[in-house]
Design goal:
Layout: E1 10-12, E2 29-32, E3 38-40, E4 47-51, H1 55-66, E5 70-75, H2 78-82, E6 90-93, H3 94-98, E7 103-106, H4 120-123, E8 127-130, H5 136-141, H6 146-153, E9 158-161, H7 168-173, E10 181-186, H8 189-201, E11 205-208, H9 215-220, H10 230-259, H11 267-301, H12 310-317, H13 319-339, H14 344-359, H15 368-394, H16 397-400, H17 405-431, H18 448-466, H19 469-479, H20 498-502
Parallel strand pairs: 4-5, 4-7, 5-6, 7-8, 8-9, 10-11
Antiparallel strand pairs: 1-2, 2-3, 9-10
Helix pairs in contact: 10-11, 10-13, 11-13, 11-17, 11-18, 13-15, 15-17, 17-18
The structure holds NADP nicotinamide-adenine-dinucleotide phosphate.
NADP nicotinamide-adenine-dinucleotide phosphate (NAP) is lined by residues 52-57, 75-77, 81, 107-109, 112, 115, 131-133, 164, 167-168.
Length: 505
């Protein structure tokens, strides 16, 4: 709510507590006038009503008071509930609470909306803010959103949907850095503007979602459980199961069947540690494969204005999540590798090797080639992980917002590709000549690292081909809007953002 005469901020006068300190009523405010002078404005503190005295109502009242509003709560049992609110909040019966306030937050559940109908006359002409969230079942069951239902019960009121995505906990203890977006919708722009302004004053970022019909979408938001992570997580799990089973067959089952040796102790650490880098590496290549496919498609079609197939479009949209899962697996691989020498099995192996060495009378087992291989292998792994960390950090919205489009694209596209190259070299130095040794083909299965190299090598080779002048020139022409004769014009998919159009390679 815009405060009349309030230009910059509300400052408590001497002796009154700062917003957020609730043990004394916020009775008087000094407002900064346009001429810079301070004016007393006791009577002008905007009055806001809340119906309901539950968890949400309490947190909302606390936040509103801390943001400079005067709050009046309407409860069916004000005497019992008053003690639970900050003393600056007036808790009274519902009929009294709705009188002086122009904006009233309805902090009760949908099933109790009808019990408020007795207040219809007092509520006429006021703004009702619906903060409710349906359960998943209610959301599917009702054809109307809670906000639309409230509007149908109170046709003489203006209903605004807001704040349902903010939990009681966030309201009370959350930051005021405007990082949290609050979707707001209503059929009345003026009421929407008023509530947006209040939400802004409370330290959130209001987001206009249009008319009240969008309330269904807004109410579905808190019901979502990481929708963008479902497919990437399933993909990572699928790869994990595949590589874990493959490594199990090669490293555990093979010695058990052929030599009757029990290597099942390898399952928790060793097999995990050979599986995780495979998943991380393949996932990283899957971040860059759709860009390569998109570029190939654009080259073939000779235009950037025709839509990609849906599966490619979805793949492009999930690259960030796939990349972060790759980083997660790579980090786990680093921790596992770090802990490998701590295992009892490793110590026994070392001692057994030393004993064998003594028995065979060998004084020096130093192998120059192996030493170099391990040094390079470890160094490349550390560099690749460092690069992946950089990509992960820059994908955080707070960091990404500090970068312009060129910087973001440089980090995610170019440095990301360097991370893929480093990971490939890391894998190759791990494999060394093992791909050519017959003994490494257990049950005729090639070493795991050879499998992991397939997709990344396709990506790297294709990217290399795109650097050829004939292809790169054509591609950059297409990206600038050039079209070959007869290129088919198709509409871009609705959710196809500019960012996706321009960042395919
Ligand atoms: P709650 O703790 O159960 O409070 C509900 C309040 O509704 C009661 O305290 C009661 O206050 C009031 N009420 C009014 N008429 C009623 C009736 N006929 N029967 C029963 N209660 C009645 O629930 P809440 O967590 O505060 O949630 C309130 C609303 O906020 C819900 O719509 C919820 O979806 C929404 N919300 C909650 C959160 C959260 O984190 N809790 C987050 C977002 C949205 P009186 O007894 O004083 O009348």
């Amino acid at each position: 709510m815009d405060h009349p005469r309030c230009q910059i901020s509300c400052q408590p006068v001497e002796g009154t507590k700062m917003p957020g300190e609730m043990d004394k009523p916020l009775l008087s405010h000094r407002l900064v006038e346009s001429d810079g002078s301070l004016a007393d404005a006791t009577s002008e503190v905007p009055k806001v009503g809340i119906l309901g005295s539950g968890d949400f109502a309490r947190s909302l009242a606390t936040r509103l008071v801390g943001s400079g509003f005067s709050v009046i709560v309407g409860s069916r049992n004000p005497k019992r509930m008053a003690g639970l609110f900050p003393s600056a909040v007036q808790v009274t019966v519902q009929e009294e609470a709705v009188g002086p306030a122009e904006v009233i937050f309805v902090a009760v559940y949908r099933e109790h909306y009808s019990s408020l109908c007795v207040l219809s006359d007092q509520l006429a002409g006021k703004i009702l803010v619906d903060v409710s969230n349906p359960t998943e079942q209610e959301h599917l069951q009702h054809h109307q959103s809670n906000a639309e239902y409230l509007a149908s019960l109170f046709p003489a009121c203006t209903v605004v949907k807001a704040l349902n995505v903010i939990s009681a906990w966030t309201l009370q203890s959350g930051q005021r850095d405007r990082n949290r977006q609050v979707p707001i919708c209503s059929d009345h722009p003026e009421a929407k503007h008023k509530v947006s302004s209040m939400v802004h004053t409370m330290g959130f970022m209001p987001m206009d979602m249009g008319s009240l019909i969008s309330a269904r979408e807004v109410e579905a938001m808190p019901l979502r459980l990481l929708p963008n992570w479902k497919v990437p997580t399933l993909l990572a799990l699928g790869l994990f199961v595949f590589f874990y089973a493959y490594n199990f067959i090669r490293d555990v089952l093979n010695p058990y069947v052929l030599e009757n040796k029990s290597k099942f102790y390898k399952l928790p650490m060793s097999v995990m540690n050979t599986t995780l880098p495979c998943v991380a590496y393949v996932l990283l290549s899957l971040v860059y494969l759709p860009g390569v496919l998109a570029a190939a498609l654009q080259l073939k079609r000779g235009t950037k204005y025709s839509r990609f197939p849906d599966w490619l479009d979805h793949w492009l949209q999930h690259r960030k999540q796939i990349g972060l899962l790759s980083f997660f697996c790579a980090s786990l691989h680093a921790v596992y590798s770090f802990c490998l020498p701590l295992r009892r099995a490793h110590r026994y192996d070392l001692i057994n090797m030393a004993v064998k060495q003594v028995l065979t009378n060998k004084s020096n087992l130093w192998n120059e080639e192996e030493v170099w291989r391990m040094e390079i292998y470890l160094s490349l792994g550390i560099l690749a992980l460092g690069m992946l960390s950089l990509l992960a950090v820059t994908s955080l919205p707070s960091i990404a917002n500090l970068l312009n489009w060129r910087e973001f694209s440089f980090v995610q596209s170019n440095l990301g590709f360097v991370a893929l190259l480093l990971s490939t070299l890391h894998t190759l130095t791990y494999g060394w000549t093992r791909a050519f040794e017959e003994s490494r083909y257990k049950f005729y299965l090639p070493p795991t690292f050879t499998l992991t190299l397939l997709v990344p090598c396709v990506v790297i080779v294709t990217k290399g081909l795109f650097l050829l002048p004939c292809l790169s020139r054509r591609l950059s022409k297409i990206r600038r809007g050039w079209e070959k004769d007869g290129a088919l014009h198709l509409t871009l998919p609705k959710n196809h953002s500019l960012a996706q159009k321009t960042s395919h390679v």
